[in-house]
Amino acid sequence: MGDRGGAGDSWRKRTGSRPSGQGGGGPGAAVEDVRDAVAGPDVGARGEVPAQARDKDGDARVDSDPLELRCHRLQDSLFSSNSGFSNYRGILNWCVVMLILSNARLFLENLIKYGILVDPIQVVSLFLKDPYSWPAPCLVIVANVFVVAAFQVEKHLAVGTLTEQVGLLLHVANLVIILCFPAAVALLDKSITPVGSVLALIVYTILFLKLFSYRDVNLWCRQHRAKAKTASAGKKASEDSAQGIVRYPDNLTYRDLYYFIFAPTLCYELNFPRSPRIRKRFLLRRLLEILFFTQLQVGLIQQWMVPTIQNSMKPFRDMDYSRIIERLLKLAVPNHLIWLIFFYWFFHSCMNAVAELMQFGDREFYRDWWNSESVTYFWQNWNIPVHKWCLRHFYKPLVRRGNSKWMANTGVFLASAFFHEYVLSIPLRMFRLWAFTAMIAQVPLAWIVGRFFQGNYGNAAVWLTLIIGQPMAVLMYVHDYYVLNYEPSTAYA
Ligand SMILES: CC(C)(COP(=O)(O)OP(=O)(O)OC[C@H]1O[C@@H](n2cnc3c(N)ncnc32)[C@H](O)[C@@H]1OP(=O)(O)O)[C@@H](O)C(=O)NCCC(=O)NCCS
């Protein structure tokens, strides 16, 4: 290797690694231009000492000309934006190490203070009050009645034995009962637990969204069929069946509908993209993740979140604001950690496992919401199945009917707020509207973050709302539930 190469290496070592491809342009290049202009004739093009005046390590030799002993050059400090330096990988690692250390300390502190609180038997009692009464699983089984009802309505609409108006009426009735029936059971049946009830209501909400989509798509197909010319349609149908493409009304089978009911999507399609085979290793990895992360979440909730929440009740009772804030911040750490684990567990492990089993090809269940620089970007990217449904069956139809984007946006968040409140208030048998308020507050929050915070500041604002907003809602619900159920004398309406 020649001397010149060595000098170049040494220069690079001192300035830290530069992003590749920066060679000609950018702030680094500007610095080099200045350096070239200032350097005298004895100094190399990049402010370097000539190669022959260097020792084998590329440093200037002591016996060389005094001018050649220069060890300084025109250059910026790494933290100056002009330096063009952007490699902070070590600092990111430092953050991770600090995070692990500080959490390990918290973990130890928790163990010393409370001992081991993890209790798998207690988890069972969250789902069942009486071992002979299983209201939540029964509710889920009964949901099949509504699937069959929607299917029968579509079958009759396809052959024309029902008019569109009657069909619409029957679908609306079916969808309204889907929401009212489990709510009535959850409110009236004393043997159902809040957790069992939440899960049953989530299943019914998913069913509502799926059957809404099923009805919409079949209606669009009928409208398309009415417009299409019969002669060309007949020819096309034979071409499609040769390619394995399903056309309306051949999709109206129980097999097709139940595939959609179990598939990890809320938007119906006649021909879903399918993966060629079930990858056993991929499926096994996802199943192991499901097992591991389920245990981890239960353990963290029992060991870390529950005692922190219990300790928050007294400051709430005393209306001790500084202690309430301290409790809130304390709860924010385990709450956020559990939420992140939940995200991976549900959107990656569970959804992919179901998709793999069903050979469902579209695996875009989430996008890079963690890079959100605005609240809008977060909602567009964190829960893709719900976002897709909102766009396809709510937002775009509203905009197409002449409503402004703002109106459509607010409409979607109102509906979302309703469903969030529905799956929480009914199981807890209290109507406090915290979840509703939190969801509807996203509209002004999106405006504020978009208006006042950009780039990294916007990203930090999104993280902050996630980290602080959720434990606030958790504390509100737990506090109100506690007051209502365990301190009847101080309960307020
Ligand atoms: C409300 C919501 C749907 C808005 O989505 P958005 O992406 O910000 O909306 P945009 O205005 O950017 O438009 C989105 C789409 O509508 C289309 N669109 C816009 N104006 C249109 C018009 N006049 N006619 C037809 N389509 C139009 C856009 O082209 C775009 O289509 P594309 O996605 O195919 O590119 C989104 O914020 C959302 O999903 N919110 C609810 C999230 C939620 O509650 N999740 C619950 C998770 S637990």
TrEMBL record:
| Any Pfam family the entry gives | MBOAT
**Which residue intervals make up region (Disordered)?**
1-62
What are the transmembrane regions?
A: 132-154, 166-188, 194-212, 287-306, 406-425, 431-449, 461-479
The beginning of the lineage is: Eukaryota, Metazoa, Chordata, Craniata, Vertebrata
Natural source organism: Cavia porcellus (Guinea pig)
Membrane topology listed for this record: Multi-pass membrane protein
- Location of the active site: 420
* Compartments, record wording: Endoplasmic reticulum membrane
In terms of PANTHER family, this protein maps to: DIACYLGLYCEROL O-ACYLTRANSFERASE 1, STEROL O-ACYLTRANSFERASE
* Source domain of life: Eukaryota
Whom does it interact with, and what assembly results? Homodimer or homotetramer; both forms have similar enzymatic activities.
Q: One GO molecular-function annotation for this sequence?
A: retinol O-fatty-acyltransferase activity
User: What's one GO BP annotation on this UniProt entry?
Assistant: monoacylglycerol biosynthetic process
Of the GO CC terms on this record, one is: endoplasmic reticulum membrane
Q: In which pathway does it act?
A: Lipid metabolism; glycerolipid metabolism
Does Translocase appear among the keywords? no
Family statement: Belongs to the membrane-bound acyltransferase family. Sterol o-acyltransferase subfamily.
Name of protein: O-acyltransferase
Catalytic activity reported? all-trans-retinol + an acyl-CoA = an all-trans-retinyl ester + CoA; 2-(9Z-octadecenoyl)-glycerol + (9Z)-octadecenoyl-CoA = 1,2-di-(9Z-octadecenoyl)-sn-glycerol + CoA; 2-(9Z-octadecenoyl)-glycerol + hexadecanoyl-CoA = 1-hexadecanoyl-2-(9Z-octadecenoyl)-sn-glycerol + CoA; 13-cis-retinol + hexadecanoyl-CoA = 13-cis-retinyl hexadecanoate + CoA
Q: Where is the composition biased (Basic and acidic residues)?
A: 53-62
Which keywords annotate this record? Acyltransferase, Endoplasmic reticulum, Membrane, Transferase, Transmembrane, Transmembrane helix
